[in-house]
Design a protein that fits this description.
This protein is of the alpha/beta class. A 6-stranded mixed sheet has the order 3-2-1-4-5-6. It is globular. The chain starts with a strand and ends with a strand.
Length: 92
Amino acid sequence: MTDYIIRATAAEGQIRAFAATTRDLVEYATGMYDAVLDADALLLVTEWKEFRVPNWGVVKRTMKEPIVFDGRNIYDKKELHDMGFEYTCIGQ
């Protein structure tokens, strides 16, 4: 299974992702901050080291809505809530 950071625009039904493989199926961002540009939500489904400690200030300023779905349960719920994110751990 390929790991992604995905930006989904609900109104347009588009998906934008950053990954190292399967480049023929989706629009790929140049990096993790580009992947959340104007995003309605962030869905994390990887445990890759580079995604463990993002600059949440940059992420929040870049997104349309500060909504995070953490599919790997690697982020601190209280920290993100304190920063103004709506945060959901998937599977907990």
